[in-house]
Amino acid sequence: MLSDEVQWVLRNARLHAADPALRSAAGFAQGAGRAAPVHRAQVGRWENGGVEVTRALVRRYESVLELPEGQLLAAVDFFARSRHPVRPAAALPPRTDPDVDATLALLERALGDERMSGLDWDRLSDSLGRMPHVLVRTSDWERLFRRLLQELGLGLQLDYAQRAEALARLAGHPRSGAVVARLAAEVVARPDAQFYNDTLSLLQFTRDPEALSVLFDQLRAPTNASSLRACLIVLTTLVRGARLEPETRLEAIRLAVQHLRDPDQPYLVHRGAANLVRTLGPAGSHRVAAVLTAEDRRVAASIIRDGRAITSQAIREAHQRIRAVLEAGEGRAAAGEPVLGGLLQTALGETNEEDRSNALCILMLSPQASIIGTVHASAFADAMARGDHVAAHESATVLTWMGQLEDLDLFERVALSPATPPTVAMEAGYVVGNVVEPPGRRRDEREASFARRVAEVIATGAGDPHAELLRGLVYVLGMRRRRDLLTALADALPEPGPDPRAMPEIARGVLGWWLAVPEHLHPER
User: Which domain of life does the protein's organism represent (predicted)?
Assistant: First the structure.
């Protein structure tokens, strides 16, 4: 299966244990009073392929190391998901059959108004996934997806990872495909949606025949840049495993190149379109790259040819900085691990966004997360100083997963500056929104500044770039549960107008999404 990756998850967790006494095989073998002692040689067999890795073994590591339940299991699931996208149950399921009564109780909670933890969703989705003939009404599947999509948009760290995996499992259930396709078609039709990618991503986890149809409709006539970008990300993943008819493949390439050559589309759309062309190749892809190079679209051409947007030297330098910090601290033993190197290569250098997201989620759950975040904050600042917005985008993609509290002032400045390109400012907003900041005067000032900038964008902005910027700025207020500021912004909007693409109408939908979230869906920080 994924033996090397799973063994790395266990070994990496032990080598970075919060308690130094547990970092050695001998110390860990004693169990710290939370598991039965074993011989130290047993730890070597667990971590080097001497025995089968089971769910119970991974849970032993979580217990002995006092990690949140499911943290290491979530990393295992994401490794497995990158190999097999359509999978309705856990990669390492329990050895016993699902408890029907317990599953029914969880299902009733999820369909009601009780709070659900990430672990609750993990258990419910795994149990349903191991019941292929489970009787769940179509309306209830839809309610599950709608609730979990809302919660995913609010989740961070392990809360996010467990919900993302649960959504993928539910989408992969043999009875849910039609609901997934209908939800995706519904969200991409809305120019005022807060999120597109979360819902559209469900299409890659289902074998329902309508999935490709929804994506091609969006590729032909995109609602806006955000929906088009989400479509390109998911379509790139889907076409890797789908056997397309020659005419369909040619149409996809033609439309992707059309979006690539559109100067009004932002970099993130160009990146997604280039990834799709690369995936649909190789026939003719080098010819497309040559044409794009001649048109001074060198970044898109680099993605098509090499699968990366920044130079291999820049990627190597980032690797070296991360490794140097690891070797200088407590991570010396783990710094040279091949699995870690592969994750970093995918996370830092791969432009295919689904592969990259899986790697970034695993790294987010790893002990190396803070180091990676600090290194990329420095790289982001350097890129902005020299005006290299492509490099800034690439670092910001990493930082939306692993931004650090000490770098908030930097990202606030970038997000709020009118001189920042709107899509870069949008990503900086997402970084700020994903960092948990303790209460205090500085936090209040920061949030008030974001609210003022939102009002300015609503009043003066126009077009897709400013709509994307608006989503990033409002995200900060929504994730920090500033209902007072969101309400004030919504109350200040003019009367509804006839143009759904006008900035006040986009703002009405975006602000309304956050204001409509029930209290019990907010995860406990």
Answer: Bacteria
Helix, strand, coil fractions of the chain, as percent rounded to 5? 70, 0, 30
pLDDT tens for residues 287-326?
555 555 545 455 555 555 555 555 666 666 776 777 787 7
Q: H/E/C letters for each residue in 128-159?
A: HHCCCCCCCCHHHHHHHHHHHHHHHHHCCHHH
Rounded Cα–Cα distance for residues 442 and 422 (Å): 25
What the block records as the tokens of 271 is: 């990146």
Of the candidate ranges 86-90, 205-209, 225-229, the one whose mean pLDDT is the lowest: 205-209
Please count the other Cβ atoms lying within 10 Å of the Cβ belonging to residue 14.
22
Among 417, 429, 508, smallest CA distance to 469 is for: 429
Helix (H) or strand (E) holding 489: helix 483-491
Neighbours of 228 (CB within 10 A): 25
405: its two tokens? 């509290």
Q: What digits encode the pLDDT tens for the residues 150-167?
A: 999 999 999 999 999 999
Reported pTM: 0.90
How many helices and strands in the chain, by DSSP H and E?
28, 0
C-alpha 369/C-alpha 195 separation (Å) is 25
